[in-house]
Every structure is written in C-alpha cells, then in structure tokens.
Amino acid sequence: MASSSSPTTPYLKHEVFLSFRGPDTRNSFTSHLYDALQRNQIDAYIDNKLDGGEKIEPALLERIEESFISLVIFSENYADSTFCLRELSKILECMETKQQMVLPVFYRLDPSHVQNLTGSYGDALCKHERECSSEEVESWRRALKEIANLKGWDSNVIKDETTLIQEIVSDIQKKLSHELSLSLDAEGLVGMESRVDIESLLSFGSTGVLIVGIWGMGGIGKSRTADFVYHRNRSKFEGHCFFQNVREESKKHGVNHVRQEILGEVLEKKDMTIRSIGLPPDIKRMLQRKKVLIVLDDVNDPQDLKYLLGEDGLFGQGSRIIVTSRDRQVLINACDEDKIYEVKILDEDDALRLFSLHAFKQDRPIEGYIGLSKTVVSCVKGNPLVHEVLGASLYNRSVEYWERKVAQLRTSGSEEIEKCLELCYQDY
C-alpha cells in the first residue's frame, strides 16, 4: 500500500509519559501540568482510567516504552500504590535499556524521603513487604532510589506552582529540541528545522477542519517535509494516513482506489470496499466523528484532489489535511493562499552539509575536496535531492573523477540536474 512506505523512520509515539498517584495530584498539579504541556504542543500521555489499582495493564507498559521522556511526580502517597511502583520499575528498565530520559518532580514532599526510603515511603515499603514478594519489593526500592537521585524539581524550592510548571515545560521543550536536532543529523534531514514552521499554519490547537498545501519544485523536499511534520504530530489524532505518490497511484489504479486506501487506513478498516462514487452513510458518520491527519503527497490534478477531500464536513473537528504539489494552482483551488507553504532551497551551509553527508559520510568535506565540494554545491543551487544523488555518486571517488564531474556540471549543469531528478525523484 502506498501509504505504508513513508520515507522517514517513525518517531516514538509520545514525547512525555506522566507517572503520578491519582488521588494525590490528578485533579490539581498533574492536571495543570498536563494542560500546560498540551498548550505548548508537547504530546503527553496521561492515564485517565486507573488510580493506582493492583493490576498494571500491558497496554500501559507499552505507553511507557513508546515515550521519549518519563516525568515522575513523587507525592506523599505515591509509594502506597503497587501500581505506581510497578510503573516506576518499568520506567527504570526503559531508562537503562532504551536510554529513555527520566525526570522526577517532588511535589510537597521532602526528596530525602524518596532517596533514603524514609517517612511515608519507608512505611509503604514495610507494608508491601508483608503482602508482596521480597524480589518485587527490592526492585521497587532500587527504582525509587535510582530515579529520586536524578536531577529534577522540588516544589518546596519553587513554591509557586505556575512558575514550577513553566520551568518543567521549558526544560522539556529544550530537551525535545535537542533530541530533534540529533535525530535530524542521524537521518540526514538537513535544513528541516527551518521548515517545521509549517506547523504554525496547521494551528494544531484550534478546532475546525484545515487544509494546508506544501509547494515547490521537484526534489526540493516537499514529501520529506510533510512526512517529518506527519510523524511529529500523528499521535495527536484519532486516525491518520500518509499516502505517497497520489499522482502515480491514481494513474495506475484510479482515484477511487486511492480514496478507498486512505479511508481504510484512517478508519482502521483496511479490508473495506467502497464501490459507489458517493460514500455510504455509515462511512460518512464514522469519518465525521473522527479527528484525522491525512497527507496527500504529490497531487497534480485538482479534480482528483477535490474527490479525495470529499464534501465539506466529511472529517471530524480538528482534522488536518496536508497536500503536496509541484503545481501551485492545484493548491490554490483547495486552500487559502496564506495556507500554502513554499519549500525553499537550502542555504549554502546546509547544502554543503547535506552534500558532505552523502559524499564523505560526515558533515563536512575532507581535506583535498573542499574547493571541489563548494563548486558542486554552487552548481546545484540548493536542491536537496540533487545534493544527495550527486554526493552518493562521488563517494569514495578519486580527485580526478571529481574534477571531471565538476567540469560537466559547469558546462551542462541543468542537464545533469534534470538527469538526477528523472532517475531518483520517485525514491525521494
């Protein structure tokens, strides 16, 4: 299926997992913190069903594994709950085996009670020793000590809760931003940080259904930009689909096939068959109740796009549709002009860095190739795809080979670039 071959490695499902003792903080500090994280577009997972029962569900353990940061809110009665302690043991396991970041918050509690297992924490563990296995209690002791000794926040030091929450959110934003920079380097997504301002056009916090277009020349990175935004935000939606190469798939199989694939994935009914031009009433009702994120990649026919978007009110409130196209007019017919994002060429520094990642497997040219690399970058003029393709073709080649290639680019640069686009655009 076209939508399953998205080019970017999938990101963790949640940015923050909140671990807390429900009766202590759910309707006070934790709810205010969760709201602040959401308002700052930080995807946080909060368990709204369980308040510290004895059984920890496998699904919840998966949510911990799927999060980049675990934020543990230690309160007076946190250790009373075996549910919280089992959750904490899982968090420690993820910290040690998956390098998950863990941040403790000591809420109206002396941190030394957790670090030294005294006070209410010592009392709670003594009670658990009479009711649970010694091995499990020992694992809880270790988890409490290890996590309580990590750098975090103490509400006795920052007494104003609004200030405390602001500091926590700000610190998490910095950590996520740093991790994003590292992931960009790891994936070679050079220049992507400057492009994610498309998210401001998507207005994720507002209601209503919104369509945003991404426009630019072939190979400029429209699909990759859309894919990057999609993976950063899909967990905020009840249904999502990234459908690549709408133009090609419509030509091969027909636009009705494309629509069926998209709606089947959004509704998680991949065996669904829609034969009629109009949607059946039951399918309409399901879509109208669902907040969805859909990417329609490489659309060139305004009629196809109109058919795929369907009638007004087809998708639930808060839904977002991203459409990429090389034809600006296709996008103008679908969305407001101020909701069309033009993907710009790379600046010289990013272009040289991207080229070097493919030509030398590092982010700068090696000695003896610096001048030649700068000439190649100058000829290519900021097209990411061509930088990648030319860089890969020059990897591990001699200076003489490079000089011949540079001479070709100087005399017939546009032809060389067109050749790269023709050969590799479908793989981008």
How would you describe this protein?
- The two termini are about 15 Å apart.
- The chain is about 50% helix and about 10% strand.
- Helix 4 links the parallel strand 3 and strand 4.
- It folds into three domains: about 10-175, Toll/interleukin-1 receptor homology (TIR) domain (Rossmann fold), CATH 3.40.50.10140; about 200-340, P-loop containing nucleotide triphosphate hydrolases (Rossmann fold, 3-Layer(aba) Sandwich), CATH 3.40.50.300; about 350-425, Helicase, Ruva Protein, domain 3.
- The relative contact order is 0.09.
- The chain has a five-stranded parallel sheet with strand order 2-1-3-4-5, with helices on both faces.
- It is built from 19 helices and ten strands.
- With about 425 residues, it is α/β, with parallel strands linked by helices.
